[in-house]
């Protein structure tokens, strides 16, 4: 059954996700503050809306893909709740803190909506291909409907638990990602100093026990994985500023829960340094160039 989807936030991730909803035959009412993002969505079959309120007014499903918690809280509390029909299913796919996710869920529920936090994993390649993994926090009876709505963008959808649980799972996942990417970059830097070819290193590690998603799908050295941002000078992809945001969320959650995360803390400190040097807009795998002492070869934006 085709539906009317309101899609808010058409950036690196949301652009591809909205396009896949349109490709599935849904009517996609799209909005972003950036005209460029909106024009790109229109070229992929979405209908540009003049505001969030206009995008959501006849929606069966509202999907948001925004940078961080403050954007999500503002857009839901001021522009979606009350403007969308109460029959609409509200899905926030951004990565944000658990407390804000629960707060937005409470506001939505009080106003009569079904809401889920549904952050994603897989990066821009999976967003474009419709093969993201979704981690959902929702009321149990709503899950089947949520899974159906996410289907055009998904390879796997998991209910992690009640509201906030999707974000908790995502924060843990991205702490692993930050640590494995940093480990991969350090190993490439060491391999280079030892006279090894980083491309040959890929061939070896991809088939050895150092293998991870950071290696096989996102290798930070150009060549072996043609779709990885390393092949386009680390343009687009997953901004280092976003990775830093997620690592901070993990450290905040660890402090509150009493979990021991020393590698997470060290990874956050290194991404803090990289961002502080002005590279927050580059893909996070560009941190390789900081470790190699080659930042002079990396454009800042
Ligand atoms: P992005 O900055 O490319 O896109 C965010 C978009 O939101 C921008 O186009 C911006 O103009 C728009 N926006 C901001 N405020 C808005 C508002 N008030 N109304 C309408 N539009 C608004 O970011 P992204 O890389 O697409 O990431 C989005 C979310 O997905 C983040 O929470 C990020 O942590 C998460 N995420 C990103 C990746 C990745 O690989 N890029 C992977 C998984 C999860």
TrEMBL record:
<dbReference type="GO" id="GO:0050661">
    <property type="term" value="F:NADP binding"/>
</dbReference>
<dbReference type="GO" id="GO:0006574">
    <property type="term" value="P:L-valine catabolic process"/>
</dbReference>
<feature type="domain" description="6-phosphogluconate dehydrogenase NADP-binding">
    <location>
        <begin position="4"/>
        <end position="158"/>
    </location>
</feature>
<dbReference type="InterPro" id="IPR015815">
    <property type="entry name" value="HIBADH-related"/>
</dbReference>
<dbReference type="InterPro" id="IPR008927">
    <property type="entry name" value="6-PGluconate_DH-like_C_sf"/>
</dbReference>
<dbReference type="InterPro" id="IPR029154">
    <property type="entry name" value="HIBADH-like_NADP-bd"/>
</dbReference>
<comment type="similarity">
    <text>Belongs to the HIBADH-related family.</text>
</comment>
<keyword id="KW-0560">Oxidoreductase</keyword>
<dbReference type="InterPro" id="IPR013328">
    <property type="entry name" value="6PGD_dom2"/>
</dbReference>
<dbReference type="InterPro" id="IPR006115">
    <property type="entry name" value="6PGDH_NADP-bd"/>
</dbReference>
<dbReference type="InterPro" id="IPR002204">
    <property type="entry name" value="3-OH-isobutyrate_DH-rel_CS"/>
</dbReference>
<feature type="domain" description="3-hydroxyisobutyrate dehydrogenase-like NAD-binding">
    <location>
        <begin position="164"/>
        <end position="291"/>
    </location>
</feature>
<dbReference type="InterPro" id="IPR011548">
    <property type="entry name" value="HIBADH"/>
</dbReference>
<keyword id="KW-0101">Branched-chain amino acid catabolism</keyword>
<dbReference type="Pfam" id="PF03446">
    <property type="entry name" value="NAD_binding_2"/>
</dbReference>
<dbReference type="InterPro" id="IPR036291">
    <property type="entry name" value="NAD(P)-bd_dom_sf"/>
</dbReference>
<dbReference type="GO" id="GO:0051287">
    <property type="term" value="F:NAD binding"/>
</dbReference>
<protein>
    <recommendedName>
        <fullName>3-hydroxyisobutyrate dehydrogenase</fullName>
        <ecNumber>1.1.1.31</ecNumber>
    </recommendedName>
</protein>
<dbReference type="Pfam" id="PF14833">
    <property type="entry name" value="NAD_binding_11"/>
</dbReference>
<comment type="pathway">
    <text>Amino-acid degradation; L-valine degradation.</text>
</comment>
<dbReference type="GO" id="GO:0008442">
    <property type="term" value="F:3-hydroxyisobutyrate dehydrogenase activity"/>
</dbReference>
<feature type="active site">
    <location>
        <position position="170"/>
    </location>
</feature>
<keyword id="KW-0520">NAD</keyword>
